[in-house]
Design goal:
The complex is a heterodimer of chains A (282) and B (331). Helix content of chain A is 18%, strand content 30%. Chain A is an alpha/beta fold and 282 residues long. Chain A is globular. Chain B has helices at 11-18, 94-108, 114-121, 141-144, 167-176, 194-205, 214-221, 227-230, 278-291, 307-311, 319-329, and strands at residues 2-7, 23-29, 35-39, 65-72, 76-78, 87-92, 123-128, 151-156, 159-164, 181-183, 238-244, 250-257. The longest helix of chain B has 15 residues, at 94-108. Chain B is globular and about 65 Å long. In chain B, 39% of the residues are buried. The chains are: A alpha/beta (282), B alpha+beta (331).
Chain lengths: 282, 331
């Protein structure tokens, strides 16, 4: 509850305070809640919000930024539908509406002492970027941290400048790959060519006591999960962030069920062991 | 002996007294020959011997299109003030009462939906003995016939035996006393149904009939018209749509009945569809209806009213899944 309003039902006014184009169709927004002088907006990486563009409607979006900016938060949005198209016409200090945060997020506290492998495909980098910053903020609590990020082509790699910065860090490993290389290395980044499973097989990372967090399109899950288990990472230790069209975010509208679980309220982060045997889950 | 007998010739007085408690609605035969819950009034006959209405009473709690938010540039999104008139719904069969009891669980238990609650609080439910026919298949009536309704009318050949279950029902019964005759309370109707038992057992087993050939058969015939879900007393899934006004300053956000048989139900941004085939959509419907999602996991939400079997234009009947499995068990 904020200012006596139920944030799960009524969108709170939020102001766009930053906007950065990441690729031809994808933009990073920074938003702040107008009541934020008094309230913090904290969340777990992997949680999502419902973003309203007045007269357009509402869409579920992963929180893409560090979880403790307190008074602002970031969303990485691809212009792909009616609402996101309207959003892409907005500039600071235009106003939108926000409900949430919703869902469970990644269980960081259960990962203490473990090696952590993040695998992002395409726009799946959005929640994993949030997760990565959360891990780095508590760097001492975890073992090896590796991010593998695959995009369709060099121009589709998001957060290039940040990736360049991350690639220079000694306390994590970064591997990039693109499906098709039609140009030289993107923004000076070292980048492989091929699909993520190929990258996974070709690079070194710790496979003992490792948890994997994966986010990407369904096709990525289908080819990657067997590979990961082949490396000895059990289904119990593989976490997936699933995409569904959540209309309500609170387990009512029944659009996002995965088996008998709701993606919006039981997820969107699931252990692979929860999803095995559920047809249509991935 | 208590005064609880309502004679048939007192029905007009009965309705007149009920109308003093709120807007009176009940099943009527419309001019197109369909049974429907409608406002009652002079010259409109309440149906007391109907099998089922086409559209279930869920429309009183979840209107097909419901404004859930208003937006204005200067004040942001606001919930509408819920001004709901007291409504008396008379003549609900046990299956429809059970349907409402299920919706109460969804919208008023773990997470209270304010619009639903406002409407539900203003609704008085008056139940009526069931009129079973070849389409319906509700379970053991004796245990739960009244499903938390305020007042129940149990039919006997010449009269109705009234029983109140709630303080609201008691208040109404007290006011009705002058027109009631004395009688012994009737024992509850007792009727069991093999199909309802088979459904319960399949649900407890977590049965998904994954290997049944019927899914393909259903999908081959289904027209994706969604009638089965539209007329289901417990189907409540909804879409959210926003309609901007021409002034560019104000908008309304509506909650509208959606349908899991529709192709776009499982679609996400960019066009990927998690339930592209009709088989997948049938499985989804089955899962929700008989096994439950999230907080309703384990609750069978099919109440056996038979509407889906009546309305399907191509005669699809999910009960065939249970029948097939029962037949397989026989030697």
């Amino acid at each position: 509850m904020r200012n006596g309003r139920d944030m799960t039902m009524v969108p709170l006014p939020a102001t766009i305070i930053g906007r950065k184009e990441l690729s031809a169709d994808t933009t990073l927004y920074r938003l702040t809640l107008e009541s934020s002088e008094k309230d913090r907006f904290d969340f777990n990486p992997g949680q999502f919000v419902q973003l309203s563009v007045p007269s357009g409607g509402e869409v579920p979006l992963s929180l893409a930024g560090p979880p403790l900016l307190h008074y602002s938060f970031e969303l990485c949005v691809r212009r792909v539908g009616h609402v996101t198209d309207m959003l892409h016409h907005l500039l600071p200090p235009n106003r939108v509406g926000v409900r949430g945060p919703f869902g469970n997020g990644f269980p960081l506290s259960e990962w203490t002492g473990r090696n952590i492998l993040l695998i992002a495909g395409g726009l799946g980098i959005a929640p994993l970027r949030s997760l990565l910053y959360a891990l780095l903020m508590r760097r001492g609590e975890f073992g090896e941290i590796t991010l593998m990020y695959g995009a369709r082509e060099p121009s589709a790699i998001l957060f290039k400048e940040e990736l360049a910065e991350l690639s220079g860090r000694r306390d994590m490993h970064l591997f990039l790959t693109v499906d098709f290389a039609t140009e030289q290395s993107p923004g000076g980044l070292a980048c492989n060519t091929g699909l993520l499973p190929t990258l996974l097989r070709g690079v070194n990372f710790s496979t003992t006591g490792t948890v994997a967090a994966v986010c990407g399109p369904p096709a990525l899950y289908r080819c990657l999960l067997e590979e990961l288990q082949g490396f000895g990472i059990t289904a119990e230790h593989i976490y997936l962030s699933l995409e569904r069209r959540m209309k309500c975010g609170v387990g009512l509208c029944c659009h996002c069920a995965v088996g008998d679980l709701f993606c919006c309220s039981d997820g969107p982060v699931f252990r692979y062991s929860q999803l095995k045997g559920i047809s249509g889950a991935i | 002996m208590t005064r609880n007998l309502l004679k048939h010739d007192s029905i007009a007085d009965f309705l007149e007294i009920l109308a003093t408690f709120g807007e009176l609605h009940g099943p009527v035969l419309t001019d197109v020959g369909v049974s429907a819950f409608r406002p009652l009034g002079p010259g409109i006959d309440l149906l007391l011997d109907y099998s089922r209405t086409l559209v279930p009473p869920k429309k009183y709690l979840l209107p097909p299109r419901d404004t859930v938010l208003f937006f204005a540039t200067d004040e942001g999104y606001r919930q509408p003030a819920a001004a709901v008139p007291e409504t008396i719904l008379v003549g609900l069969h046990p299956c429809d009462l059970q349907g409402i009891a299920y919706l109460d669980k969804v919208f008023m238990r773990d997470r209270i939906d304010p619009l639903y609650r406002a409407r539900r609080t203003a609704l008085t439910l008056i139940g009526l003995s069931c009129e079973p026919d070849e389409y319906c298949f509700c379970g053991d009536l004796s245990a739960t016939e009244t499903h938390g309704c305020d007042l129940f009318m149990r039919r006997s050949p010449c009269e109705f035996h009234l029983r109140s279950n709630t303080p609201k029902g008691k208040a109404i019964l007290d006011r009705l006393t002058p027109i009631l005759a004395e009688g012994e309370p009737l024992p509850a109707d007792s009727r069991t149904c093999d199909m309802a038992a088979a459904i319960q057992q399949a649900s407890v087993r977590g049965e998904t009939f994954e290997k049944s050939a019927l899914w393909d058969e259903f999908a081959g015939r289904c027209l994706s018209c969604g009638a089965c879900s539209l007329c289901c007393p417990t189907c409540y899934c909804f879409d959210i749509r926003e309609y901007g006004a021409l002034d560019g300053e104000t908008t309304m956000r509506l909650r509208e009945w959606d349908n899991c048989l529709f192709k776009d139900h499982g679609e996400v941004a960019g066009g990927f569809n998690f339930r592209k085939s009709r088989q997948e959509r049938f499985h989804y419907r089955y899962q929700h209806k008989y096994l439950g999602f999230g907080p309703t996991r384990g609750i069978v939400s099919c109440v056996g009213c038979g509407r889906c079997r009546v309305v399907c234009p191509v005669g699809i009947d999910l009960l065939e899944l249970f029948k097939e499995s029962e037949d397989e068990k026989r030697p």
